[in-house]
Amino acid sequence: xMFPNLFSPLKLGTVEVKNRISFxxxxxxxxxxxxxxxxQMYYWGERAKGGAGLIxxxxxxxxxxxxxxxxxxxxxxxxxxxxxxxxxxxxHQFDGKIFAQLNHNGQQGDGSISRLPVWAPSPxxxxxxxxxxxxxEPEDIDEVASYFAKCAIHVRxxxxxxxxxQFGHSSLARQFLSPLTNFRSDEYGxxxxxxxxxxxxxxxxxxxxxxxxxxxxxxxxxxxMIPGGLDLGQVQEICxxxxxxxxxxxxxxxxxxxxxxxxxxxxxxxxLGYTIPLAAGVRERVKIPVFCTGRINDPVMAExxxxxxxxxxxxxxxxxxxxxxxxKKAREGRMDDIRYCIxxxxxxxxxxxxxxxxxxxxNPAIGREKEWGEGTxxxxxxxxKVTVVGGGPGGMWAAKMAGRRGxxxxxxxxxxxxxxxxxxxxxxxxxxxxxxxxRNEKDQVDKAGVKVKLGTEVTAEQVLAExxxxxxxxxxxxxxxxxxxxxxxxSVYNVxxxxxxxxxMGDKVCLIDYDGHHRASATAExxxxxxxxxxxxxxxxxxxxxxxxxxxxxLTRQRLLQKGVTFTPDIAVMEVxxxxxxxxxxxxxxxxxxxxxxxxxxxxxxxxxxxxxxSLYFSLKGKVEELYRIGDCVAPRKVDMAIWEGHRIGREI
Length: 653
Prior knowledge:
The protein is α/β, with parallel strands linked by helices and 653 residues long. It contains 24 helices and 27 strands. 32% of the residues lie in helices and 19% in strands. An eight-stranded parallel sheet has the order 10-9-8-5-4-3-12-11. Helix 8 (232-244) links the parallel strand 9 and strand 10 (250-254). The model has no long low-confidence stretch (mean pLDDT 97).
């Protein structure tokens, strides 16, 4: 076996899991009326079907004062039990185990949702939610403990195999433990013994309600990564004391807090396996099983962590969101078939943080596993001749899905390699991992029996001469040719030209950012890495305005500033003027309406929007019985929509 440690069983309390892969807790926004839903059943079940040994649900709320998000499951209502039974029965069909995560978010709650005061150890607002909490009285602490116990009973009656209590990055328990958020002077504050008193009360209440024959663990923040907060040394001592209590069976780990959320949910700019040293540090002090989670997205790294004795269980979250069948494929040695997560955070964290249902750029089936999950694709009733024009992600997905359904598919692209705009985007600073999208899909296109013809500029006449039954146009978009006056002058380039090496760059560069996303910021950093002096002008409140939901804002701005990039926000650029080596940029402040001029610059770079490349589509309209267009040639958007539309059309034709 390729991965003997990863696919060995592990005892967690009274439960034995079949392998060392845990699908980690994360918000889905799939609950309905604060009760478990059918979509959650299929969502978690898909990961059990895909081979994960353990599923841990998203955090579920234990008390009415805990409403951090609108679509949490309220476990304290007995009405949750029937829904729980459906979920656990479904997961158990696939020889998987499932634990429920229980939590009270404390100061990280939202009183505007609950219409109740937020409860916390001390009246200190959370850095993200910014609501001043009520300092909990001793009877409030006792009440929360009793609610933890009540919820635990509902969990057990719902058929779960165990419970994980959230003591990590977003939890009332961590807030009691941390000197950063606990300023109390009573028996619940001050010394470590006192700060542990409330969390131990929560654990004890659950254990008493459950008895000793039910698995119970905690998810602990291994390091708050901020001055004044818990560090690894303190956490090691806390974990040793929790273990010594004899109340818990395992230790799951998270990192950081809402002060540094970019570490909780590390993006592409965060190293793979960045939490491994913390897990190893905790494991040095405790004997119960320790979970390690944090950008471990492939079985090779997971096996190495286990073989080195740095952890006992590997937590995979985004890796199994992206490919629910990663465990099964790894066990069967089908490494080339694994769809690897790239930590772009656009479909998962970027959506749930905006109160949308969970998604994934590379997995359109998220939340729709009942209709689109593994085993739902059927062969076409009639085999059709399908032509797909455009080999970007949308075109590859359309071709792959149509090929799997038994159609005769030919995929054309004008370039010598597949990938479309991804090939350019991956050249931006720190964006090389974005190219994994191409690697993930190219082999699947080949395995679906698709004929691929590259270096071919397809015309309407060529398409019609082939007499296809179906044509899917995925020709994408191009940068706007003249988005602002003077943009056709000398030494003015778009980001494509810069990243693809087609621009003659001077030393002083102005980048005009109407994008707010990586197209602009990664290009600015690309230039700064070459030693250019870069000045970014944007009409937004700040540079990188679209990067907040994906947790890329903080580190992106930090890197740009450290590399000497200058920011000028709030400016609507109206004109670019001047000759090479003396370019000027003119515009006005969008709030004061005051005009100004910047320069001189050697070069101006434009990140000012895309235009559709739809000429082939309109040349074929009315001439082909089944004609579709997908992705950017419908409207310029991000890669998730191109993949979504390619997947859908490929399934339906």
